[in-house]
């Protein structure tokens, strides 16, 4: 199986972007539950999943998100993030010429539910309790909503620039 240099490079760039936007862009701490924070890193998971083939998108999401947790004091959450962020890429498709589509909107909703449910189950099972973990669910949904809004705003701009078609032209094989 030939690996495309384009996919490897884009996956690495997305993993780094997800890490930086999760760890260092402004974030809002979750007051209830066992901690955590609301961030916009999921926005770039959505873009990665719209551009890259699924295995590359899942790897970028998992690596970027888990590194953010591991390197910013949330190491207890890194195992969950590794799995949850990878699963969030599943509903998306890299097919098509635009970022903003009906499928992308449905995928965003599904990814938000995967995120909220995944962190709820992890927190309830390993960190606190099923009752205490409920306090984090609205914040995880708010994170998904904030990332969806930013994705839509940037996606419209990127569609005007035909960014997705330009990225598709980079087909260098190694």
Description:
With 174 residues, the chain is an all-alpha fold. The chain has a single domain, classed as Orthogonal Bundle (Arp2/3 complex 21 kDa subunit ARPC3). It contains eight helices and two strands. It has helices spanning 5-23, 41-51, 54-71, 78-88, 102-127, 130-133, 137-160, 163-168; strands at residues 28-29, 37-38. It has a two-stranded antiparallel ribbon with strand order 1-2. It is globular and about 50 Å long. It starts with a helix and ends in a 6-residue tail after the last helix.
Structural features:
mainly alpha, 2% strand, 2 strands, 68% helix, globular, two-stranded antiparallel sheet
Q: Summed up, what is this model?
A:
The protein is mainly α and 174 residues long.
State the end-to-end distance.
Answer: 10 Å
Largest sheet: 2 strands, antiparallel
Helices and strands, in order, run as HEEHHHHHHH
Radius of gyration: 16 Å
Mean pLDDT: 90
Helices and strands, with pairings:
Elements: H1 5-23, E1 28-29, E2 37-38, H2 41-51, H3 54-71, H4 78-88, H5 102-127, H6 130-133, H7 137-160, H8 163-168
Antiparallel strand pairs: 1-2
Helix pairs in contact: 1-2, 1-3, 2-3, 2-7, 3-4, 4-5, 5-7
